[in-house]
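Appendix C: a fully annotated inverse folding record. The material below is reproduced so that readers can follow the format used throughout the book. The structure is listed first as C-alpha cells, followed by the designed sequence.
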C-alpha cells in the first residue's frame, strides 16, 4: 500500500471502518502526522538495502502498522494493544493480538526477516525472544533489532541529552539497557551472525543513543560448557 492509499484509508469519511468508530477523523489525523506521513529513516535505509518490501517480514510489537505496511506480501505483525490491532486490520494488515512472552504462536521457518524495533528493552527475557526469532526464521533469515543504547562515553552522553532532550535507555518502562557491544553480544549468543550495526551515520555508531543491529540466522547449539541442567524447560524446545 502506498502513502496515498494510506492517507485515503485514514481520512475518508466514507471509510466503513471509521464509521465503526475505530478512530475519529481527528484521531486519524494525529496518527497520520505522527506515524505515516513520512517514512522513518530507521526503516528507509534497511527497507531499501535489504529489499524488505519484497520479503515476508514478521513485525514484533507492530503498533499501528506504520512499519508493517511497508513490508512484502505475506508479512504479519504481533501486537498486544487491542486498539492498535483493530486499526491495523482496518488498513488491511495481518496482525495477531497476543503477548509473545506468554506464548509463541509462529510456525518454524516461516519468515524471511523479523523486524523488532524498540522492543528488546521492554521484555523480561530477551534471550528467549531471540531464540523464538531463530526458530521462526527461514534458513539465512535476517533480524533487524533496534534498541536505545547507553552512549559509549560521557561526552556522547551529554551531547545526546542536549540534542534529543532525553536518553532513551533511561525510560522508566525499560527493564533492559544495552551498549552497541552488549546488544551485538546478546544477539550473537542466540544463534546469529552480526552483519552490521548502524544508525543514520554508521561512522558515528557509538555516538548516538540508539542502534539497529542486522544479523543473520546461523546453525546454533548451546556449548557443552553450559550444562543442560541449567536450562529452563522452555529452552529445550528452542
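Designed amino acids, in order:
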Amino acid at each position: 500500500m502506498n502513502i496515498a492509499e494510506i492517507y485515503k484509508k485514514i481520512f475518508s469519511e466514507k471509510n466503513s471502518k471509521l464509521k465503526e468508530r475505530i478512530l475519529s477523523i481527528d484521531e486519524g489525523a494525529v496518527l497520520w502526522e505522527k506515524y505515516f506521513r513520512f517514512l522513518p529513516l530507521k526503516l528507509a535505509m534497511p527497507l531499501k538495502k535489504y529489499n524488505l518490501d519484497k520479503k515476508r517480514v514478521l513485525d514484533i510489537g507492530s503498533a499501528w502498522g506504520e512499519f508493517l505496511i511497508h513490508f512484502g506480501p505475506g508479512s504479519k505483525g504481533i501486537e498486544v494493544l487491542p486498539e492498535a490491532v483493530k486499526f491495523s486490520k482496518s488498513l488491511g494488515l495481518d496482525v495477531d493480538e497476543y503477548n509473545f512472552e506468554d506464548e509463541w504462536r509462529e510456525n518454524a521457518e516461516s519468515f524471511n526477516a523479523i523486524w523488532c524495533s524498540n522492543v528488546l528493552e521492554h521484555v523480561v527475557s530477551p534471550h528467549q525472544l531471540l531464540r523464538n526469532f531463530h526458530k521462526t526464521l527461514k534458513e539465512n533469515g535476517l533480524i533487524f533489532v533496534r534498541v536505545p543504547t547507553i552512549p559509549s562515553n560521557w561526552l556522547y552522553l551529554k551531547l545526546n541529552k542536549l540534542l534529543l532532550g532525553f536518553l532513551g535507555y533511561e525510560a522508566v518502562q525499560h527493564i533492559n539497557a544495552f551498549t552497541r557491544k552488549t546488544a551485538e553480544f546478546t544477539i550473537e549468543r542466540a544463534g546469529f551472525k552480526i552483519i552490521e550495526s548502524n544508525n543514520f551515520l554508521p561512522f558515528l555508531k557509538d555516538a548516538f543513543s540508539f542502534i539497529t543491529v542486522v544479523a543473520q540466522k546461523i546453525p546454533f547449539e548451546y556449548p557443552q560448557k553450559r550444562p543442560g541442567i541449567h536450562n529452563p524447560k522452555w529452552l529445550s524446545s528452542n
